[in-house]
Specification:
Length: 67
């Protein structure tokens, strides 16, 4: 599996803060089980982005972003 290259800013719309968290997710309807997409989150948006993904059963892991 190859590493996905991601920007280092928060993925929340309109937020330009540095990312502190990596939210790893996949959509099981279109991705293989081992595939991970990444959204990055600042401290302020970590919970809201995680909740959005979790409500859809997409969230797989949340880990510190060391980018």
């Amino acid at each position: 599996m190859t590493e996905e290259v991601v920007p280092s800013g928060c993925s929340a719309r309109g937020c330009g803060r540095p990312a502190l968290w990596a939210l790893r997710w996949n959509n099981p309807k279109i991705h293989t089980p081992d595939r991970r997409k990444t959204w990055l989150a600042c401290e302020e948006h970590k919970d809201s982005l995680s909740d959005f993904l979790a409500q859809r059963s997409f969230l797989r892991e949340v880990e510190p972003f060391t980018g």
